[in-house]
Design a protein that fits this description.
The chain has 71 residues and is mostly helical. The protein has a single domain, classed as Chromosomal Replication Initiator Protein Dnaa, Chain: A. It has helices at residues 2-12, 29-41, 46-53, 61-69. Helix 1 runs antiparallel to helix 2. The longest helix has 13 residues, at 29-41. The N and C termini lie far apart (23 Å).
Length: 71
């Protein structure tokens, strides 16, 4: 997942640490994309992804995937 975060951070020109920040008002698109890609590509369980990104429930990860797929 670190590799995914590095690629996403580079793409969005942000520090990888910003992918750990939750901003419920403004949102954090790079974080959302990193979570989506981790869920789709890493092969990790949702609990492991949630533990890595912090401040997200493993139950919320399918919602992130659905939201991106429907965008």
């Amino acid at each position: 997942m670190r590799h995914i975060c590095k690629i996403v951070a580079d793409y969005y020109h942000v520090f990888p640490e910003t992918l750990q920040i939750v901003d419920r008002i403004k949102g954090n698109l790079p974080r959302t994309i990193a979570i989506y890609l981790a869920a789709q590509l890493s092969g990790e369980k949702f609990k492991s992804i949630a533990n890595f990104f912090k401040n997200i429930s493993y139950r919320s990860i399918p919602q992130v995937v659905c939201r991106i797929n429907n965008a």
